[in-house]
Design a protein that fits this description.
The chain is α+β, with helices and mostly antiparallel strands. It has two helices and eight strands. A four-stranded antiparallel beta sheet has the order 1-2-3-4, with no helix packed on it.
Amino acid sequence: MSKHSAPLLARRRVSAMCYPLLASLIIPAIAGDVSLFPSLPAGTILTAIQTDSAGNIYIAGALVPSNAKPGNIYDAFVAKLSADGSQVYKTVLAGSGSDYATAIALAADGSVYVAGFTSSQDFPATSNALQPKLGSANQAFVAKLSPGGQIQSAT
């Protein structure tokens, strides 16, 4: 081990020790040992994780839809888990094409911002959207969720 890799390794260990619930949920899920959403089919992809000051865990990514049609490979999702690991909410952002959530950010008021990309011509943009319809394949989207997980705005 080089002298430069030791501090990085130490930071990873400390990080896992500071968030034992996060480590116990996410690490096995990434390894394929457990499912964060037992009622959904295999294929859930986690792409973003955030925690808040209360210890809640927010995850985002993509999942295989249960009613997939040709061209609809994944649907974007955001989920909130309480500090004890129980699911508070799961919001799916989906159109008829593939949708992926790739980043999340938390606001002080409990709102959640999610960004990703979509190939859905009917992505669930809200009436106040900057771009209500998809202009070309694989465009970016941004959505704001309420503290309870409802879509407040999406474009």
